[in-house]
Amino acid sequence: MTHLQEKYIQRLDELAWDSSHLLRAPVANMKGIINLIAQKDIQLSYEEKEQLISHMSDELNDLDQVIQDMVAKARKELEDRVV
């Protein structure tokens, strides 16, 4: 029973780390990009806006990959427990 509790606590710690680092980084980057685009006192050229949108798309792709990886890892752990 102690081993299961230790494993559970370890998994919670991993989830907390993933949430605070892997998920948080792309979200924070997208918020920064949106703030830049939304500022009224900064004039951005079309090319600059396109570059910012491209960066935002890259961050969304990164976020999507992190989520897919987390789900796949959770599914694998569940499958390993069943087998």
Task: Give structural attributes.
Helix Hairpins; 83 residues; mainly alpha; single chain
Binned, the helix content reads over 70%
CATH class: Mainly Alpha
Say what the CATH topology is.
Helix Hairpins
Q: Mind telling me which CATH architecture this is?
A: Orthogonal Bundle
What class would the helix/strand composition place it in?
Answer: mainly alpha
Number of contiguous helices: 2
Q: What characteristic shape results from the CA principal axes?
A: elongated
Mean pLDDT: 87
Model regions low in confidence, pLDDT < 50 over at least 5 residues? none
First-last Cα distance: 19 Å
Number of strands: 0
Strand percent estimate: under 5%
- Return the string of H and E elements: HH
What does this structure look like?
- The protein has a single domain, classed as Orthogonal Bundle (Helix Hairpins).
- It is built from two helices and no strands.
- The protein has helices spanning 2-38, 46-82.
How would you summarize what this structure contains?
With 83 residues, this protein is mostly helical. It has helices at 2-38, 46-82.
SSE layout:
Elements (H helix, E strand, L loop, with lengths): L1 H37 L7 H37 L1
